[in-house]
Amino acid sequence: MKIDTLIVHADLFTMQGKGVGYIDNGAVAIDAGKIVAVGPTDQLQKEYTAEERIDATNKMVLPGFVDAHLHSYWGILRGVAQDTSMWMHKGVGPFRRYLTDENRLAGSKMNILEGLAAGTTTFCDYSTPILDIAQFYKQLGARARLTCFIKEVPDVLDTLQEDDLYPFEPAIGEKTLHENLELVDRWHGYDDNRITATLGPQGPDFLSVDLMKKVKNIANEKQLKIHMHVAQAARETKQMVGRYNKRSIAFLDEIGYLDDSLIAVHLTDATKEEVELLVEREASMVVCSGAIGIIRGEVPPACSFLEAGGNVGLGSDQSTGNNCNQMINEMKLTALFNKIKYKNPEVLPAWKVLRMATVEGAKAVGLGDEIGSLEVGKKADIVFVDLTAKTMQPVIKSPMRNHVPNLVYSARGHEVCRVLVNGQTLYENGKYLTVNEEDIVDQCQRFATETTEKVTKEHFRITNAYEFMKQGQL
Amino acid sequence: MKIDTLIVHADLFTMQGKGVGYIDNGAVAIDAGKIVAVGPTDQLQKEYTAEERIDATNKMVLPGFVDAHLHSYWGILRGVAQDTSMWMHKGVGPFRRYLTDENRLAGSKMNILEGLAAGTTTFCDYSTPILDIAQFYKQLGARARLTCFIKEVPDVLDTLQEDDLYPFEPAIGEKTLHENLELVDRWHGYDDNRITATLGPQGPDFLSVDLMKKVKNIANEKQLKIHMHVAQAARETKQMVGRYNKRSIAFLDEIGYLDDSLIAVHLTDATKEEVELLVEREASMVVCSGAIGIIRGEVPPACSFLEAGGNVGLGSDQSTGNNCNQMINEMKLTALFNKIKYKNPEVLPAWKVLRMATVEGAKAVGLGDEIGSLEVGKKADIVFVDLTAKTMQPVIKSPMRNHVPNLVYSARGHEVCRVLVNGQTLYENGKYLTVNEEDIVDQCQRFATETTEKVTKEHFRITNAYEFMKQGQL
Known about the structure:
The structure is a homodimer.
Chain A: E1 2-13, E2 22-31, E3 34-40, H1 41-47, E4 49-55, E5 59-63, E6 65-70, H2 87-91, H3 93-96, H4 101-117, E7 120-126, H5 130-140, E8 143-147, H6 170-187, H7 190-193, E9 195-197, H8 209-222, E10 226-230, H9 234-244, H10 248-254, E11 262-266, H11 272-280, E12 284-287, H12 289-296, H13 302-307, E13 312-314, H14 327-341, H15 350-357, H16 359-364, E14 382-386, H17 403-410, E15 416-421, E16 424-428, E17 431-432, H18 437-455, H19 464-470
Parallel strand pairs in A: 1-4, 1-5, 6-7, 7-8, 8-9, 10-11, 11-12, 12-13
Antiparallel strand pairs in A: 1-2, 2-3, 5-14, 14-15, 15-16, 16-17
């Protein structure tokens, strides 16, 4: 049979079944962007004649990673809000009001390139200006599941006291809902579902109950997922109890949000019982270990969610906090933070977090039928890892394989040497094939300088980090 | 004045003073392997004429990192002992007896290359076969502070029950002490102190009190540091209490070990009072966050040690456990694990862990007068970081600098683009200038395969990891 592409001689990790689905000297046959066969090289070589044959000798080949939650635009201010408490208020707060759509877009592009080069093929990007960012994903060729903020709170968090309830401005709510609906109309289902959209109420504390209900009705009517921050911190719980005398999840239950359309991000402040309720209602979870660890010193209840039988994906969140937009970092931190949380080295072994970054993450964001494993009928989103990189060396196959522990614990990202989405190579050996990397880096640098120069007069609001600099520590 | 090398136009972080010692558009003048001036480029360009001029535009330039504790030879078995409890017994235990000097050396070479490429210039390498490894450091040109295991326990840990006291064999003690003394005689002070030696009693539980005392007498007589695992786990405490009815630090106090010659590694199971006693006696600490986090799910008391006023260095430990032999990883994990331990994002900010990886780490291992900062009279061990790498972008200088947070939290290692030791470039843009990388990787791969094939009959001893593989999870 004639096909587009045949990958041969791979150390193949299909992620099929309950483990990593290893096939020694494996092959993947791809036609029209989809996987048409997976199996031993000998067998597939007999059955298929390919336009392009990719020799994957000394390569680990696996499904592309799913970044289940990121705010790519924060790339524009990487590293300005570290080591500070009240991160949203005092860390990024002073900078937020100076961001423009133009410089946010520049930050997004850079972060997306960073993720792609480290093997992310699906970006669940929750960003502004989302319509422009969608154009970039169109050009880049990566898979995107896009969301924008529906909220009624103006950019004033840095001026509030810790106990103040956030002000709501309904006009902001209308405007942001409109933008999200425009995103859905223009992009949901684009390019045979390569780009899809979800609805993004920012969190139960960021919009009024009326708008929350309106969003849920639209989600039901249009069969859309709701991608939302839930119980993200004690800060949110304080807002919810102050406003409604209810914790986030009880509130969401009451207004009908707890069902399989909910992708609940963070859950840092959720109790075990709340987590179990979410799983019972078939909501899914995204854990952003790096971000929550650095911003709050906390480890969200991903293990409880998994134990209760739920699906958990991994998200890199934002680079003005977490700093890294890539899933190899998230896999490692998720495994290590939970080992520490439970003082148990057996918690979340490498193969489990690899499943969270691939097949289970895909299910968690509602794309389980299309991506997440290398299996017949799924889209050919595929990552190659160079096993001759020193961080992946030596490669051991007996008495057990070390590929997966080394990918999760030792690899740093640069070992990824080829990335395919829909069977098309987007990145190979350090080069991006569909966009101009240099322009993107230059633009990001220029806009960041412009933005932060404007912030100069706000020094008094920037806490730790600015103090550190004045004392010669940054 | 004529000199060998002038580095100009750097974003220079000298690590002088109490912070990071930033100099905008900075320069470093180097002659005969030492730093002869540090200051603004304009000024140094007037004062010096150099044989070699290195333009560091768009580069962050800082002192080389000190890996204060590593067992490089475990590189030969990277990734075989993950996600398992009783790591020493059940994780590496079954493999340990099959290691030969030849394959340990191959593992060491690969791990050392990995560290150098990510900016480690000083390797406090606690390894076997140390005399051969010293030859490799001689050839490579890196700075090395070498130690080998003085111990009386044979390689039988994997056959013991958890409560069994380790057997001591005095003949092993004599042999290993002899090797350490040979190391001192042949290498201590080599090449104007580029290679030095310390004494390495493995830990208070691994040799008899008589041999411990003998080692301490030699240390006093020859003015050598003692590089030792101390209170490394509850396992050690159990041995000490079982044998002597004393905890490790009380025991060490009694036999005169607690003074400024002691470099105490781990201290995982040390109490706050024990930590304070060590600081009072001017011992120093090395924390191996990655290794202890992954092997035990614990966070050693580095913050307590720092608070009590002690010096703490960072160590990468071994790659059959921690997996990564590089300090950018260690800086990040040390900061994040301690934020989580104390549920406080302000704990161990980026600049503090950068000091631990450079100037304070140098002091902790007794090399504070020679390395650790860029300052006149110190050795020219210098690292260049490419600021155009996406992980370091954008570069922000106002209202505060983001170089240090991005180096610690975002960089992955591949941003290091040049490494100098004693003013000599050893690594530049992915190439090693003094050794053949390809041979080293090939050799390591070959020996790893040979070794693990021999271990095949020991499957029954390998716990989690082998179970995982049988179930298709690895």
